[in-house]
Amino acid sequence: MPFAQLAIIALVQGITEFLPISSSGHLILLPWALGVTDQGLVIDVAVHIGTLGAVILFFRSDVVRILLGTWHLVTGRRTPEAAFAWLLGVATIPVVLAGLVFKITGLEHAMRSIAVIGWTMLGFGLFLYWADRRGPTVRVVADWTMRDAIIMGLWQAVALIPGTSRSGITITASRLLGFRREDGARLSMLMSIPTIIASGTLLATDVVGKADWAAAKDAAIAAILAFAAAYVALSLMMRLLRSVSFTPYVVYRVILGIVLLAIAYG
């Protein structure tokens, strides 16, 4: 694959994975916009690994806490870390089950259209704006409960529809539950870790034994570029959320959604 195409794919995935603007929607649109063939599952797995590395590094202290909590769960210890790890696991169950259903039934391919992405970009963008304006900003990560984990987990499953945005819909849910913008985004990012691991594993089962040396080289480049782009995008978003709302992302989603619907129905 040409380096320029590889770089664009990795950068788009890295930048959009954690911003509330839908990485899956952009990756589906990218081959159409560039007039090239789809990048394939090997590159998809690679950029997932890159973005996973970025979120783990950025939230490394939280990741250590989650790993410690997981160990506590295994050994039967009741600690705050164990409780948080348990809630994170509960929040992941809906998207894993829905992902299996989508894969078995073929729904993941049936919804990869410009019209679907246009409507989800527009609709869920406006939903984020409404939730961000309506929701109180009083709760922090330490206030996360089983009810919150289930609600945010169910909304995360909706993000399997292209254009919805996993981070966008979980942040929307967190705002409706009263979490501060920065804390809601932090919960959303931490929820992404087991979700990306699950989706990456599912994708990897489809490419085992298919990759050659050239594909492995392209995958390594894509993973590194996606890692760098995701880390920068994540750093900027978390810093901006201390003083800026989600409105700029909503404006982008609405404009892109309208453009895509005009193309789809024009």
Largest sheet: none
Number of domains: 1
Number of helices: 12
Helical residues, percent: over 70%
Question: Proportion of β residues?
Answer: under 5%
Q: Rough shape? A: globular
- Could you report the average pLDDT, rounded to the nearest whole number? 91
Helix-strand makeup class: mainly alpha
| Number of strand segments | 0
Regions with little confidence, pLDDT below 50 for 5+ residues: none
Helix/strand order: HHHHHHHHHHHH
Commentary on this structure:
- It is a single chain.
- By secondary structure, this protein is mainly α.
- The model has no long low-confidence stretch (mean pLDDT 91).
- Helix 1 packs parallel to helix 11, helix 5 packs across helix 10 and helix 7 packs antiparallel against helix 12.
- It contains twelve helices and no strands.
- The chain has one domain.
Question: What's the layout of helices and strands?
Answer:
Layout: H1 3-16, H2 23-34, H3 41-58, H4 60-74, H5 80-105, H6 107-110, H7 114-134, H8 146-158, H9 166-176, H10 181-207, H11 213-240, H12 247-265
In short:
The chain is mostly helical and 266 residues long.
Keywords:
266 residues, mainly alpha, globular
